[in-house]
Amino acid sequence: MNDSFRALVVNKTDHEFSVKVQSLTLSDLPEGDVTIRVVYSSVNYKDGLASSPNGKIVRTYPFVPGIDLAGTVTDSRDPRFKEGDEVIVTSYELGVSHFGGFSEFARVKGDWVVPLPEGLTLKEAMAFGTAGFTAALSVHRLEENGLMPEKGPVLVTGATGGVGSTAVSILAKRGYHVVASTGKESEHEYLKSIGAAEIITRKDVTPESIPALGKQRWAGAVDPVGGDTLASILSTIQYGGSVAVSGLTGGTAVATTVFPFILRGVNLLGIDSVYCPMETRKELWKRMASDLKPNALLNYIGNEITLDELPATLASILKAEVRGRTIVKL
Ligand SMILES: NC(=O)c1ccc[n+]([C@@H]2O[C@H](COP(=O)([O-])OP(=O)(O)OC[C@H]3O[C@@H](n4cnc5c(N)ncnc54)[C@H](OP(=O)(O)O)[C@@H]3O)[C@@H](O)[C@H]2O)c1
After folding, report:
1. Which residue has a Cα nearest atom 33 of ligand 1?
2. How far, in Å, from the CA of 162 to the mean position of ligand 1?
3. Reported pTM
4. Residue 131 near ligand 1, beta carbon < 6 Å
């Protein structure tokens, strides 16, 4: 049997770094219980890092990146899955230290596999992908900590990005007054079309000088930007409100004080999609399938590309040039 298929392979030698579509065989895939014919993947910021020479994500080359995949099981030694099952795999080691989703076939651990929930197609699942899952987890954690639409406006930073776009649309769908912060003046109409009630600039969120406590503006915030942006948000959260922080596009160091926490009871919620427990993971995917209107997300958020178009998209995501979510058809 000719078992060759196409995959995006990144390679690094002493002389060269390359990102190329190549032919692999099933025997090139890593160990795992479940083999999947990947139908869609998606592009995340972490994939951009994994495909750049100094991204500090990949340790062993050659490597197939792609932290998300959705497809059909072709072979399984795990009794929970059988040939023909439609499944989603995101997180864990996928696309980081285990060959990922930018490949027509993948082999993974059964423990990483989520059955595709009813009401969601493989394509819609990847329109959400890790970024969408992270946004859904952020909203879930904010609500667990008391956020509700009546409490006031919710800020989303990095709003045109993957996590930001999906957070805007999820919050709007759930009845929140969403204020989207963006560095892209050209994308205000797009942000309104996915549910933002107000648009503000990055400078509005992060002034040159950040007070220890500022005017109380936000009932909650979804922040995939971090850095000074997070410090500034913390000082402007309303009494008892929360910030769900998931990312670092604006930097890793956060210069804040204890005042928002001890004088306003502000909660700082860390969001990790990678090792989020499987029960919560399955529950959130079901919610994305049922109450978050995936068709609207697809219309507004998804750009579809092929494997051959991936290298250019991976380069542009690191320059903050990508809008919303990009899915990859395998
Ligand atoms: N914790 C987790 O489990 C998890 C999961 C997924 C992603 N993440 C992290 O979340 C972050 C966002 O991921 P993503 O997939 O949404 O990336 P993305 O699609 O590239 O979006 C990032 C957005 O951040 C904004 N931004 C970029 N540089 C900035 C800067 N210097 N200052 C302020 N804003 C800036 C831009 O939006 P505007 O132009 O609209 O401002 C950009 O579009 C990344 O750091 C990623 O690693 C974490």
Report:
1. 250
2. 7
3. 0.94
4. yes
